[in-house]
Each structure stands twice: as C-alpha cells, then as structure tokens.
C-alpha cells in the first residue's frame, strides 16, 4: 500500500452535511467516467482505506475518545484541549470537536466505498473477476458503519454515490437495527467473495469478514452466530494463514514482521506521510513528556492509565511489562514512574502505555508521529476470545471454550523465550457467570489500550460497575441513561433537522 498518497487525487469526495458547501464543495466522482477496469475500483478502495489513516479518523480524533472512554485510560496532561477531557469525564456536548472531526471523515470513507461499489457494478466483467474487488469496499463500508452505529445509535445510512448534494442534505436517520442488518449484509457479501489470503493484511480477507461478523453478532447478543463465525475462522486458520505471534511484544514492535500473521485486518502507517495523512499520533498522545528513551522527543502525556491499572494488573503477567512503561529517562537519568517530573502537571506519576511508543520503528518527525506501526484493528487472539465468550453463553462449562482462552494464556506465558507460570490455564468447570467475568477480564488485559475496552463496557452495560469508587477509574459524571451513546454533531442537526431527535441527554 505504498502508493496511497497518489490516490487522494482520485477521491475528491466528501459527504452531505460535512461542511458549509460554499467553503468546501462536495466533490463528485462519476462512475461512468472513471471506472474502466477492476484496477480503477481498487484504486478508489485504496483511497478509502488511506482515509482511515488520516488524523480525523484513526490518527486520533476517533481512536483517542475510544481509549479515553474506557476505564483503563485517563487524561495525564491537564492542559490538553477540553474536547479530549470531556470524553474522559463524560461531559461531552453535541459540539465536541472530536466528534465533529471524525463524523465527516467517516462518511468520506463510506463515500469512497459507495463510489467503488457503483463503479464495480458499471463494469462489464464476470462476477468472479470484479466481486472479489468490490467485496473489499463492502467490508470497509461495514467497518466504518460499525463504529458509527455503536457510538451514535440511529444514524444516516447511505449506500449509494452522492449525485444530489441538496437531496442528501435532507436525509433522515436509519434505525440502528437496520444499520446492523446492512452491516451484516455487507460482511456476508465480503465473506462470500474475498479470497482466503491477501498480499497485505491491510486488505480484508474472507477470514477478516467472518471475524467482524463474529464481533457484530457478539455486540448484538446473537451468541450462536457469533460462535459460528468465530469457529469458521478458527477451523480455517491454516487456510487463512493465521496464528498467534509467539511473543506478545512482537505485536507492538514496528520492526517485527512475523507478528502480522496474527492480524486479520491492520491499518498501516508506514505507506506515506503527507500532511495529516499517515500521521500516527498515538505514540505522541500516550508517550511520557520529555522522556529521552528512543530519541523521539518524548510524548505528550495525554492518554495515561491510572495507577489502579498498574496496581491491579498481576505483575507476573508478561503482557503487563509489554503494555506499560514504568521508567523514563530525564536529563540522562533513569527514573521510576513515581519520580516522573510533572512539567507543570503535564506528567503524572503512573505507568504509561508502552505499546505504541516503545518500538515505533523509523519515525519521520517528532514524538513518534511518523511511526511504522501497523495497527491490528482485529487480531486472531480476539477471535479466540469471541468464540470463548459466545460459547459460554450457549453451552456453559465447555472445555472447548476453556481451550480458546488457554491458547492466549499459553502465549502470554512466553516472556521473550522464557516460560513463566502465569497466567495459569482456566480453572475447569467455571459457572457461566464466572466464565463470563473471566473472559471479559482476559479481554481487558490481552487487548489493553487497543481501543476495544469501551465497546466491551457499552455492549455489556458495565458502566455503573466499572466507573464507581471500586473500579479502576471513578467517573461520577457517567450516566447509563446517556453515555452509552454519543450525541450526533450539533452542526449536522442544524443543517438537517431531519436528523432530529438528538440522542437522549444531550
């Protein structure tokens, strides 16, 4: 995917209501004029994927709120913009700048997929030639809508190219249940037509589509289908070229390529760097301010785990040492986190996230923003955990479900070639409730800081439990009646009253 930077010339697409039309006109791409071959369709799909690596989407505007809304990450730098702090404190309003940035970017990604699908349908080639290409667009569209529907509930659903901006600007919301049906339909199409393997994990495969179907069904509480889709991936792991990385650290070392066999779908930040495209801000946002380790200029101390995360996480777990930085280097001196200098309250005395700043590879600019990380948006380990969680809901006490968790724990015991005793295998015969609690805890530690925890809290309605005084973070502003959904952007509702009513509580 080295040629992303050339693809945005093709994708001059923004969607309805993204901005004042006089200031930023909607660009229209004509399928009849551009699409001549499957390669043209692929070019537009690549552009949509490239838009995911932009600052307003996975660069930070979408990814950072997902991290901050969990119970494992809070604000370190109290001088950071209020729009970020509001997600951490559950004081978000409908003009929050994070939302007003990622909302139009997500629809721009969707617009590209709609153009690609329409273009594919306009080309007179056999289905077995064009559908495997078009299936990528169906998958990316499903992926984008899957974020939006979980975050906002009822949303505008558009599955066609925009040719009439005025008509598009008056569209109504689609009920969340219908959005999910459309997501499933896209993923089913993708699962049917995508190949078993792709030349890069930044393109979805058949297993990628099935893994996301499993995730969608888990979110919807359809545990049989979640298990069936996860089992499809597990049974075909050899066919799909999947395996767990042998060393957990390899997953977060940008210089290690073999860890990619665990990725079902990854977002590459090493293909190009052009303005806000390809800029990975996560290392900067999570790094220790003025830390001299790694020679990247330190971080910004924005998203930092609480001390409770460090204290609660079992110190025998190798994943803890991979995931957390407990030392920094200041003026040439190595200091434990208890002694981190505050720099006017811009560092806190806590262990920091290490997954993105410890081994970012070659960086093209300060604070690790030009990292070479390939972000695993879905890892094979998560598929195993989905299978275990879903199977427990269907058939409690299953040794098969135990086995899926045990595979992950066995990998966690391999600490850079040294076998540890922790974590032990699952205690056989756990009750359904005990297994459910265990597997959610396993997800919390295995997938820590990988932008999954908030979605687990929301789908299992854990907010009142995890944000009280006995949890990892106390968030008294959290309201179960309001905060499982974010508001629709106020500027969108002002431009299009058909998107009313606003979500409750905003």
UniProtKB/TrEMBL annotation:
It comes from Sungkyunkwania multivorans. SUPFAM superfamilies: TPR-like (SSF48452). Transmembrane segments: none annotated. It is found in: Cell outer membrane. Belongs to the SusD family. This is RagB/SusD family nutrient uptake outer membrane protein. Residues 87-218 form the SusD-like N-terminal domain. InterPro entries: SusD-like_N, SusD_RagB_dom, TPR-like_helical_dom_sf. Keywords: Cell outer membrane, Membrane, Signal. It comes from the Bacteria. Residues 349-506 form the RagB/SusD domain. Gene3D superfamilies: 1.25.40.390.
